[in-house]
Fold ATP-dependent 6-phosphofructokinase.
Amino acid sequence: MKIAISTGGGDAPGLNAVIRAVVLASIRRGWECWGIRDGFNGLLDPQQCTGEPVMRLDATSVYGIGALGGTILGSTNRADPLHYPVRQADGSVGEIDRTEELARLLRENGFDAVVSVGGDGSMAIAAALHDKGVRVVGVPKTIDNDLDHTFATFGFDTAVGFATECIDRLHSTGYSQHRVMVVEVMGRYAGWIALHAGMAGGAHAILIPEIPYELAAVAAAIRARDAAGHHHSLVVVAEGAEPVRGERTVLAGAETGRLERLGGVGARVEHELAGLTGKECRSVVLGHLLRGGSPSAFDRVVASRFGAAAVRALALGQGGVMVALGDGAIGTVPLSEVAGHTKTVPLDSDTLATARELGICLGDQA
Ligand code: F6P
């Protein structure tokens, strides 16, 4: 059997551990493994690739990569085969679906199956390839933890661990300076990273997209801390967190321009909390730091289990599925059930209940 591996979308710590596991588990079965560069661009747009567009992967190529961040295959979210960007005659950029062509190129290159590692976008591509007769197994990846049907995606644990370390550091500087420290973390429209890192790091307020926030509530919590003799506060904000309707009116005229230059929601919260509390506030955007670096031990193990499970699924004749972590064990879910389904923090989750019980302000109660 000749299989191709592709890593798509944003990178996440653990991608290399998946590649390593797929290659080693394939070699044990006597299969041949190849990596496609930059998502599927190695096949769709080889001249755009920085290295060999399609490369043979053997035990030597994956030696020692399990501990490395990023992906040796490269990845991109600018070349989604379902929405491939094309320049139109008038100079504007449109998009076309190139999955039919991709399925043909995979066949022409003699690939019997594909392991597609990625987030919801990659699972949608995998589902489209499956519909076009390609045997494909998906492997869930994202630091955001927003893929449905799996308890874990690799990358999340590493991101939460690093964010927690940063929050720990921000506590000591905030404490010394009697400041409000605001930390913005990634997560798209889901609050998993903010909630977990905020709780682990002992944040005093956590703002997530699932709960529209009122900064008046956060300011009241900060004032209450001050009154109790605690003159620093730490606020974690998910990048997708939104104020309740109308709250943004605090930002008038010229200030809006300044905030746009400063950045996103973290800068806005910093500015508004300074106005509401009269305290010195500072914000930090952790951004892509959360995606970089070496995967945690947990992510290395999950990624390895996912990679080996993908090969096992192919050996069992499966296709059109994503490997997923179920109740303690790895199983498979049909791609048709995964594509387009994302997972946000349930409002009735015990983690949210715990946050409230710990006295963490979630921005919804003044
Ligand atoms: O999906 C992972 C993620 O890290 C999100 O949390 C974030 O919004 C996004 O990628 C940023 O991606 P990029 O900067 O690569 O476009």
Q: What stands out?
A: The two ends are 61 Å apart (CA to CA). Residues 157-292+346-357 form a domain with the Rossmann fold fold (CATH 3.40.50.460). Residues 156-177 form the longest helix (22 residues).
